[in-house]
Amino acid sequence: MSVISVVIAAAGASRRMGGGIPKQYRMCGSEPVLVKSCRVFSEDPRVNSIVVAVPEGDESYVLELLEKYRVGKVLFVVSGGAERRDSVAAALSLCPEDSDFVLVHDGARPFVSPDVTGRVIDVLENGAEGAVPGVTPKNTIRTAAQTLDRSLLYEVQTPQGFRYS
Questions:
Q1: Distance (Å, whole) CA 52 – CA 74
Q2: Cβ atoms of residues 62 and 54 within 8 Å
Q3: Can you give the pLDDT of all 165 residues of the chain as single tens digits?
Q4: What is the pTM of this model?
């Protein structure tokens, strides 16, 4: 059986939301968004561990949240970086070295389904170097010069998976 680690990128400042409470900490029903995002993976029997990247200074707060809401499998909560790639790199450096695969998920996306995460894992376990879920866009998309053919486009989603090596 594969060893699967998950990196949750949740260090964003929520600038597009106009300030206030960062979206990863806003309530979504009875739980904060970040808790819901982590729970999807903590309840997946194929996932072995989770590392969460959060804004610098929020590590203890997030550990308390995850404990309060009884989210398991979280090995570390680490300070994220200035850019998403920096946060992912910081979390990735703490994933267990025996990981076969890593899934990277956006902590502000709590509605990912176990079906989507399962299909990403299946693709990886069937020999792919990486797997990215995507959907065809519903809206018309244009450049300055032309309308693009939606049937050739995909909106990339998370989790994005790859071989740990």
A1: 7
A2: yes
A3: 899 999 999 997 666 656 678 899 999 999 999 999 999 999 999 999 999 999 999 999 999 999 999 999 999 999 999 999 999 999 999 999 999 999 999 999 999 999 999 999 999 999 999 999 999 999 999 999 999 999 999 999 999 999 999
A4: 0.92
CB atoms within 10 A of CB 155: 12
Contact 51, 96 (CB under 8 A): no
Among residues 105, 22, 116, the alpha carbon closest in space to that of 65 is found at: 22
Torsion over CA of 76, 112, 42 and 123, rounded to 10 degrees?
A: -90
Query: Residue 17: phi, psi to the nearest 5?
Result: -85, -5
Residue 106 bridge partners (DSSP): 9
The SS3 of residue 125 is: helix
3 state SS for 28-73: ECCEEHHHHHHHHHHCCCCCCEEEEEECCCCHHHHHHHHHHCCCCC
Q: How far apart are CA 63 and CA 74, in angstroms?
A: 9
Q: How far is CA 45 from CA 72, 73, 83, in A?
A: 11, 10, 31
Phi and psi of 136, rounded to 5°? -75, 140
